[in-house]
Amino acid sequence: MKKILVPIKMVLDANVRPRVKADGSGVDLSGMKLSINPFCEIAIEEAVRLKEKGLAEEVVAISIGPAKAQDILRQAMAMGADRARLIETDRPIEPLTAAKLIRTVVEEENPDLVILGKQAVDDDCNQTGQMLAALLDWPQATFASAVAVDAGTLHVTREVDGGHQTLALPLPAVVTTDLRLNEPRHCSLPNIMKARKKALDITPVANCGLDLAARLNVLGVKPPEPRKTGRRVANVSELVGDLRAAGVI
């Protein structure tokens, strides 16, 4: 393979408690820590490992989002990506729109493999990879837990209900990553400094010439109900009585 393209997304850090906006229109991200989507981080790690094995010559990271998304692209380059591209926009991007925007980059870059996280932890849509494969008319393998390349054929192992399934895909192809694929590396300080000097191309979303109209309407967002406190019972009989009173048994 000559080139691997890795789309990544900036999301609310997984260790931060989400805060809903006062009007219930969405999650309030002001002043919150944003970071690379965990599944996307796994995708970057896998692409870099394939390059380190001599199976690819270049890894290109791409993100769609505001100017601050440059931070996660710099992180991707600190992990080992050779260069990065940002399609800059401040508006929310739906999965189908993201797939169409990534397709425009695929047509420009001509990668042999597109590898991306199976889903983003902010919306859990799990759609972009599949939609991208359909738009490109490329073979796809989702929820990858192992990836190998042999004689120009991509072998992807994925977990299914009955055990493990291994698919053989001709290249070019689209792969989405599962949590068990790898453990992303920590970025060393020298690599972080080098990433600041690597190429990062910024393209306004208006230059892509696509219809960005929203097709999904969010009716409202609200936090989960607080958990009710439990009660300690003295014995099994009391427990059974409480369960009967609650209509559970």
From TrEMBL:
SUPFAM superfamilies linked: Adenine nucleotide alpha hydrolases-like
The keyword Transport appears for this protein: yes
Keyword Magnesium: no
Keywords: Electron transport, Transport
PROSITE patterns documented for this protein: ETF_BETA
UniProt-listed Gene3D superfamilies: HUPs
Domain (Electron transfer flavoprotein alpha/beta-subunit N-terminal): residue spans on this chain: 24-212
InterPro entries: ET-Flavoprotein_bsu_CS (IPR000049), ETF_a/b_N (IPR014730), ETF_b (IPR012255), ETF_beta_N (IPR033948), Rossmann-like_a/b/a_fold (IPR014729)
BP-aspect Gene Ontology terms: carboxylic acid catabolic process
Single GO MF annotation: electron transfer activity
Cofactor: AMP
Family: Belongs to the ETF beta-subunit/FixA family.
Subunit structure: Heterodimer of an alpha and a beta subunit.
Function (record text): The electron transfer flavoprotein serves as a specific electron acceptor for other dehydrogenases. It transfers the electrons to the main respiratory chain via ETF-ubiquinone oxidoreductase (ETF dehydrogenase).
Identification of the protein by name: Electron transfer flavoprotein subunit beta
